[in-house]
């Protein structure tokens, strides 16, 4: 390799014109980048200054968050997140204990009633959002009470029905900030007409295929009308209690996999299987097993 001899190397730098050029170049870049970063931080701070830390700017129709809720269910296992299968051996606690603890964990937040109030009559979370910017003093979120589920056989004593082979499944709408359910318009769908009440989001569950419909048995809805809309809209607030409803499968046929679909009904809930909106699917499998 042809190395440049040291003296010659320094000779290049000792050239005055060359040194001047380098200095100019360095000077240019220092000024350029200083201005660039100044502009960047100026706009960043302007943008951050307009952000609201509690209500996102882009929610609702036409945004990534959207305005059409999906449905979630419990028990959903954190260590098996892709599974939608609830599978257990009748009367064998070890086969369903993980579902029971998942539900228990999910429901634990409702036992914390700090920063909540007992909403009765026409009181609802709507007042909080309406008064948001008007008053410094915010009303606490409405408290969601689990008593009705306990009374109707979805409680810890009976392992949320699993101990009686009548599993309880929790259903809820995915939280969309600012979303408010509207009343059903026109004729009430036949499948919920005997349970629907004004001011509620009513749910309906059924077997997906004909054979599932035959195997699914009686389904109990707790409460029968579904979710009281007083807990909407959702806004970021301390200790928000997300409203839920439960379905209890009272006489599932054993040893067959049962595909279940549950739909929620309100004026502005759409049912879309492809995008999983307004409905949820899961499977239940009670199997007598020798393992
Ligand atoms: C709620 O009901 C009370 C009376 O019970 C009434 O004074 C109040 O105006 C009502 N509020 C709304 C928002 O309807
Ligand atoms: C709310 O208050 C009513 C009557 O004041 C009571 O019957 C009900 O149990 C209370 N609910 C909760 C969740 O504390
Ligand atoms: C729990 O559910 C069982 C089964 O339906 C019922 O007998 C019992 O009274 C319930 N327990 C409570 C504390 O509500
Ligand atoms: C209850 O919720 C509040 C938030 O509103 C929280 O600060 C508090 O630590 C919670 N208490 C318990 C026992 O988790």
Protein model, in words:
It is a single-pass type II membrane protein. It holds the Pfam family Na_K-ATPase. This is Sodium/potassium-transporting ATPase subunit beta. It comes from Acrobeloides nanus. It is found in: Membrane. It is a single chain. The strands form three sheets. Strands 2-11-10-6-8 form a five-stranded mixed sheet. It has two domains: 1-51; 71-286, Immunoglobulin-like, CATH 2.60.40.1660. Helices cover 26% and strands 19% of the residues. It is α+β, with helices and mostly antiparallel strands and 291 residues long. The chain has six helices and eleven strands. It is elongated and about 95 Å long. The mean pLDDT is 88. Helix 4 (126-130) links the parallel strand 3 (116-117) and strand 4 (141-142). It has helices spanning 6-14, 16-50, 93-107, 126-130, 147-151, 210-215, and strands at residues 71-74, 85-88, 116-117, 141-142, 168-173, 200-207, 219-222, 227-228, 245-249, 257-265, 279-286. The structure holds 2-acetamido-2-deoxy-beta-D-glucopyranose (NAG) (4 copies). Residues 150-151, 153, 155, 157-158 line the site of one 2-acetamido-2-deoxy-beta-D-glucopyranose (NAG).
């Amino acid at each position: 390799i042809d190395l440049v001899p040291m003296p010659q190397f320094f000779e290049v730098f000792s050239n005055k014109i060359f040194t001047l050029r380098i200095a100019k170049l360095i000077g240019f870049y220092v000024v350029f980048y200083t201005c660039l970063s100044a502009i960047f931080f100026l706009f960043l701070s302007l943008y951050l200054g307009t952000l609201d830390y509690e209500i996102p700017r882009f929610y609702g129709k036409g945004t990534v968050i959207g305005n059409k809720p999906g449905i979630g269910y419990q028990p959903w296992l954190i260590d098996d997140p892709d599974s939608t299968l609830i599978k257990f051996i009748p009367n064998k606690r070890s086969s369903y204990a993980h579902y029971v603890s998942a539900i228990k964990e999910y429901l634990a937040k409702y036992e914390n009633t700090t920063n909540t109030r007992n909403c009765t009559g026409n009181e609802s979370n709507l007042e909080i959002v309406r008064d948001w910017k008007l008053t410094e003093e915010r009303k606490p979120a409405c408290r969601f009470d689990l008593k009705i589920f306990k009374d109707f056989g979805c409680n810890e004593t009976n392992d949320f029905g699993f101990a009686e082979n009548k599993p309880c499944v929790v259903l809820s709408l995915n939280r969309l900030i600012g979303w408010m359910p509207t009343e059903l318009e026109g004729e009430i769908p036949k499948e919920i007409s005997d349970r629907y009440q004004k001011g509620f989001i009513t749910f309906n569950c059924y077997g997906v295929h004909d054979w599932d419909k035959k195997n699914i048995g009686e389904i109990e809805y707790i409460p029968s009308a579904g979710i009281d809309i007083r807990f909407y809209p959702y806004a970021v607030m301390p200790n928000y209690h997300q409203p839920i409803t439960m379905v209890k499968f009272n006489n599932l046929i054993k040893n067959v996999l049962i595909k279940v679909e549950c739909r929620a009904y309100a004026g502005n809930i759409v049912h879309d299987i492809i995008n999983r909106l307004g409905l949820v699917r899961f499977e239940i499998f009670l199997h007598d097993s020798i393992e």
